[in-house]
Amino acid sequence: MNEPSPLPMQVIPLSPCDQEAVAELHGAFRRFWSEPSTQAAPRVGYDAFLALTPPVASVAVHPSTDPTVPGWICVPERPIDDQALLYLHGGAYVMGTAPAYRGLASQIAARARRTTYILEYPLAPETALPVAIEIAAAALERLATRYRKVGVVGDSAGGGLTLATLGQSKVASAAVVFSPWTDLTFSGSSIRGRAAREILLAEESLRVAARGYLGSTSAHDPRASPLLGIPSNLPPLLIQVGSEEILYDDALRYAQRAHADGHKVTFQEWTGMHHVFQQNVVELHAARSALDDAAAFLDRNMHAP
């Protein structure tokens, strides 16, 4: 039997213009998250942090009126009429709201030229697994009745939720995930090996969040840890991850296993980048380039027969 070919990896170097910007951003991150008001109300702080991503002025944004797809809708100028995207936001399953992600989702909608739905799913620990997955799968199925092709995009926990949802639904034409959290068993070596380089996440905080999200479900359940159950129907997938983050192995190992199973996977490692750096479109050339790549990937695969 032939051995599977190694995963093709695209390693994008840190551009000279981003070197100083990254250092300044990391200082700003430390100041933001050390503020007493942020520490006292982390959910409010998280939304304020994500809302720093500016919206695209030409993208119309309004609440969804479809109860099956609760949240917000970003409509770009001259959208591709028969295609749409579902965006699943991050926040370790315990933080994040659809309104906070309007800026980032509008950046994607404008580049991809596709109407983008930001799903408002219930947070943990108030609501445990599998409710979020069921809501995401129902939303994806609903969009597939209205559009000829639907893609899915997610970041961090939303990236893990994207991959778990693809295990429950077969209607997606393509998927993009930024820094996906795929392993709630915490078996990846980067959790500890890259802790000194990580600027935004902490293992203990993730463990607390995971316990709330899991409820009575095992962390080894593929719905919780999609790394442990690659679906047979996985659509073309783009994974982007920063080299400096503790979830690096969550991204890399998922890509390796999906590729070994014969799926079409594109893996990008962005040198010097932090967790979900794509949100920093104002400060980082890498963020703008990564979002451009994501849009191009969706274009190639959603236009395919």
Write the layout of secondary structure elements.
Blueprint: E1 9-12, H1 16-34, H2 36-40, H3 42-50, E2 60-63, E3 71-75, E4 83-88, H4 102-112, E5 115-119, H5 131-146, E6 149-155, H6 157-166, E7 172-178, H7 190-193, H8 203-214, E8 237-242, H9 248-260, E9 265-270, H10 285-302
Parallel strand pairs: 1-9, 4-5, 4-6, 6-7, 7-8, 8-9
Antiparallel strand pairs: 2-3, 3-5
Helix pairs in contact: 4-10, 5-6
Describe the structure.
The protein has 305 residues and is of the alpha/beta class. The protein is built from 10 helices and 9 strands. The chain has helices spanning 16-34, 36-40, 42-50, 102-112, 131-146, 157-166, 190-193, 203-214, 248-260, 285-302, and strands at residues 9-12, 60-63, 71-75, 83-88, 115-119, 149-155, 172-178, 237-242, 265-270. Strands 1-9-8-7-6-4-5-3-2 form a 9-stranded mixed β-sheet, with helices on both faces. The longest helix is centred in the N-terminal third of the chain and has 19 residues, at 16-34. The radius of gyration is 18 Å and the shape is globular.
